[in-house]
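worker-3 :: picked Deoxyhypusine synthase-like protein
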Amino acid sequence: MKISEFMKKNYKHFNAAVCVEASEAWIQHLDKGGKMFLTLAGAMSTAELGISLAEMIRQDKVHAISCTGANLEEDLFNLVAHNHYARVPNWRELTKQDELDLLNKGMNRVTDTCIPEEHAIRYIEDEVLELWEKADKEGKSLYPYEFMYELIRSKKLEHKYQIDPKNSWLIAAAEKNLPIFTPGWEDSTLANIFVSHVITKEISRYNVYRSGAEQMGLLVDWYKKTAKDHPIGFFQIGGGIAGDFPICVVPLIRQDLQEKYPLWSYFCQISDSTTSYGGYSGAVPNEKITWGKLSIDTPSFVIESDASIVAPLVFHYVLGL
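worker-3 :: tokens ->
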């Protein structure tokens, strides 16, 4: 039985029913020639969402991505160091001493999974430092995802792959040359490392990386170009800046630039955030109408659940698996 058939048979009510409705609406959106913008918050890369997301990208179900710096880098960490990761099945029971022991072993914990400092973070640091130094010397400034794409396309990492590369959403995105927007990239491990190299004068300037404002300008260009021929949907995983940053591109174009472009044509958010008023990420979709992001006709869905459970189901449904 296909996942979609299972869900149609069993997912009849509440959040389960919304999963089916949002999936069907995604398919209908694509059938009308629509494009889908996906946002990734939380630790979705370490949750290995790439197993399902990569295929969504390859089959042209996702056309642009906004993600945290952590999600951008952690897909790469997992790609080259998966065999050195450690799972902590009893993570709810860890004491402070247990946490300190993990630190002393060079294991950085993300819920039930530990990222190895040496095999993941420091290995990628050595590789990407060469790209930073090269860009610095040549006077270039790149977006965060451009450095990642350059590293992947160089083939220098291939001998280190420890997962099937078809399960890396970053490799799939590089193959499709998808634009990836990384607001607040400074809040990531590689960004912290980059700053350390500027402070120690190994890199001469901070603007080796292009700014968040420049990323918004790039997003404006992408939206305007894409919206000329395609309605654009917005599928948000989690809350925070990964979603809050890109959804604002529409009122920027319509209200600040005073240019006539369509609103987002589909909206869905998977979040276990309690619906709140005054809490930006926890606000109901209707509030986005007042900000000029969604229309009263935009198909809108909120799935209140764990994205690591729900997102792969929705992806498989859209893929027809």
